[in-house]
Amino acid sequence: MRAYPHRVGRKMQRLTNLRKKLQEKELDAMLVLGADNRRYLSGFTGSAGTLVISQDAAVLITDFRYIEQATAQAPEFEVRRYEDYLSTVKEVLEEHGCRRVGFESDIVTYDQYTKWKEKLKEIEWVPAAGLVEELRMVKSDEEIACIEKAAAIADEAWAELLPRMRPGATEKELALELEFLMRKKGAEGLAFNVILASGPNGALPHAVPSDRPLQEGDLVVMDFGARVNGYCSDMTRTVVIGKACQRSRTLYNIVLDAQQAAVAAVKAGRTGKEIDAVARGLIADAGYGDHFGHGLGHSVGLAIHEDPRLAPKAETVLQPGMVVTVEPGIYIPGFGGVRIEDLVVVTETGCRILTKSTKELLELGGE
């Protein structure tokens, strides 16, 4: 594994940005354990490692399994092998005169924290949840390119799956086929477990694929994404098996109108709650407000759910380079659900849609 100069420069800028935040918070250093945050700052993709970042140090502490990998992937960091983890952390902090140290309080377990307190008594541990995540909200051109490629893979896989969606095919079979198609087209893995829910199962926003066979008249909700170079995509489409009844068509058109209006409202300078209100208002006006119970969307990156959010209480102001989903839905217990989701990049004047699949109501596999 070789280090690429442009990637090194990008990671150095991320370290500089974090150090500015540490200075603002009056922190001598920060410990970073979260896998996505660790990868974002260092490039290291191993499953075990801690970053110690101060104004004059960037150290990656890991065990013997990852020394070679860490050295190759994180050339800006001093790689330190540990035998006794806390002793090595203490050693690094003492070497750089760090006493007030931030940590990811949303990631570190209570047991870890109590051990730190017991064995590193001289350190003042300061909760610093979200500090790195704030840096991750605005994506670089390279990050957006990875997300866009992942979105294209998902689009292509979905198009190839459609002819196989016929009465008798089970949710599990189709979900597995969709995963296979994404991997075949270049995905390194799934962004999250495929959601494929037919008929009444579609009323569950996060339904798990079952052995239920598709039936004539079913609405089928499919929510899925690919992963490319660590970055996720996310899309949802809803189709009908056979002919759509009037109720299904009405629900679909309400969600489609809400989704398109919300996409049109996405723009730098607006808050997440302002965008959410556009879709939520249209669904409520149609009489289905109580059947849209989740937020309109979320950011996507190294994690499938990142900040900022599009939700009723989301105050974050959108900035160019943020990547968010727009995914309103209506869920009717005992009948089914409709959700339509695009992935978009925020721009100064609006947004760029990464999801290219049609949003026309498709009637599939009928006689």
What can be said about this structure in brief?
With 367 residues, the protein is of the alpha+beta class. Helix content is 36%, strand content 22%.
The residue fraction in helices comes out at: 25-40%
Give the strand content. Answer: 15-25%
Number of DSSP E strands: 20
Mean pLDDT, all residues: 95
| Rg over CA atoms | 23 Å
Q: Could you give me the name of the CATH homologous superfamily of the largest domain? A: Creatinase/methionine aminopeptidase superfamily
How would you describe this structure to a colleague?
Mean pLDDT is 95; it is low at 1-6. The chain has two domains: 5-136, Creatinase/prolidase N-terminal domain (Creatine Amidinohydrolase, Chain A, domain 1, 3-Layer(aba) Sandwich); 141-364, Alpha-Beta Complex (Creatine Amidinohydrolase). The N and C termini lie far apart (54 Å). Helix 7 packs across helix 8 (171-184) and helix 9 (246-265) packs antiparallel against helix 10 (272-285). The longest helix is centred in the middle third of the chain and has 21 residues, at 141-161. It has helices at residues 5-24, 35-42, 67-73, 85-95, 110-119, 131-136, 141-161, 171-184, 246-265, 272-285, and strands spanning 29-32, 50-54, 58-62, 78-81, 100-103, 124-127, 189-190, 195-198, 219-224, 226-228, 231-232, 235-241, 297-299, 306-310, 323-326, 329-332, 336-339, 342-346, 351-353, 363-364. The strands form six sheets. It has a six-stranded mixed β-sheet, sandwiched between helices. Strands 8-9-12-20 form a four-stranded mixed β-sheet, covered by helices on one side. A three-stranded antiparallel β-sheet has the order 7-10-11. It is built from ten helices and 20 strands. The chain is an alpha+beta fold and 367 residues long. Strand 3 (58-62), helix 3 and strand 4 form a beta-alpha-beta unit. Helices cover 36% and strands 22% of the residues.
